[in-house]
């Protein structure tokens, strides 16, 4: 029996357009979650404190940090969070390898 690596499985699955789109969406949500957690913790804030600063609710911050919401957060929300953490939201497009 041949051993198959996760990278090989992903490479094959990524050929499926629908899977590829969903996979990229999940990567984006997880990257956003990681960034918000890191910045919030670096500032020494609770989710509640960040929510107040960003004029949103603690459950919204919790959902973002879990990365489990089916939606990608709006640019408006991300901008409010960025500004409440003394940051500027930056968006870029990268060349696909």
SSE map:
Layout: H1 6-13, H2 17-42, H3 47-53, H4 58-66, H5 75-84
Helix pairs in contact: 3-4
Q: Explain this structure to me?
A:
The chain is mainly α and 97 residues long. 62% of the residues lie in helices and 0% in strands. The protein has helices spanning 6-13, 17-42, 47-53, 58-66, 75-84. It starts with 5 loop residues before the first helix and ends in a 13-residue tail after the last helix. The relative contact order is 0.11.
Counted by DSSP, the helix tally is 5
Structural class comes to mainly alpha
Shape: elongated
Terminal Cα span: 32 Å
Question: What does the average pLDDT come to?
Answer: 93
Query: Fraction of residues in helices?
Result: 55-70%
Largest sheet: number of strands, sense, barrel closure: none
Beta-strand segment tally = 0
Name the beta content range.
Answer: under 5%
Low-confidence segments, ≥5 residues, pLDDT <50?
none
SSE pattern: HHHHH
Rg (CA only): 17 Å
